[in-house]
């Protein structure tokens, strides 16, 4: 779910960035398609340099898109890594839980055996006391 939200956010920033740079820098971005191309290339951190904003407002939009892009990929990578680690951990957790249940059952058997032996020893001691007394 988080990966979808982050991915959608990247697409939204690319689209919004394209719209804004198209509106504020018409000299360089004569069509929305050109602005969208620039924004996708910038969000993707490719940055071909074939199209660049020339106005101050366009550069402010570019700076915002670049800063978002720099933060986006580490966040996305972290989310994907977390998902993979959780999926890998689930079987290990289930196996550890099963192992713990098996050890617990073995310990309970041993305790029952010790209890039986103690009861037997108590009975023997009681008989010895009766004979001696």
Description:
The chain is built from three helices and no strands. The protein has helices spanning 2-24, 32-43, 56-132. The chain is mostly helical and 133 residues long. The chain has a single domain (2-132), classed as Helix Hairpins (Orthogonal Bundle), CATH 1.10.287.
Low-confidence stretches: none
Largest sheet: none
Termini separation: 79 Å
CATH fold title: Helix Hairpins
Question: Radius of gyration, rounded?
Answer: 35 Å
Total domain count: 1
What would the principal axes of the Cα set say about the shape? rod-shaped
**Helix residue percentage:** over 70%
* DSSP helical segment count: 3
Q: Strand percentage, roughly?
A: under 5%
Any idea of the CATH class?
Mainly Alpha
> Which second-level CATH architecture applies?
Orthogonal Bundle
What is the structural class?
Answer: mainly alpha
Return the average pLDDT rounded to an integer: 86
SSE succession = HHH
Annotation, overall tally of beta strands: 0
């Amino acid at each position: 779910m988080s990966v979808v939200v982050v991915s959608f956010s990247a697409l939204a920033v690319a689209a919004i960035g394209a719209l804004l740079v198209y509106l504020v820098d018409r000299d360089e971005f004569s069509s929305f398609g050109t602005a969208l191309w620039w924004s996708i290339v910038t969000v993707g951190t490719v940055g071909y340099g074939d199209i660049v904003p020339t106005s101050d407002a366009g550069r402010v939009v570019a700076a915002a898109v670049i800063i978002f892009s720099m933060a986006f990929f580490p966040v996305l990578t972290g989310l994907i890594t977390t998902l993979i680690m959780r999926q890998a951990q689930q079987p290990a957790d289930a196996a550890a839980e099963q192992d713990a249940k098996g050890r617990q059952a073995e310990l309970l058997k041993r305790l029952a055996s010790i209890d039986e032996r103690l009861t037997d020893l108590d009975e023997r001691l009681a008989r010895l006391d009766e004979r001696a007394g």
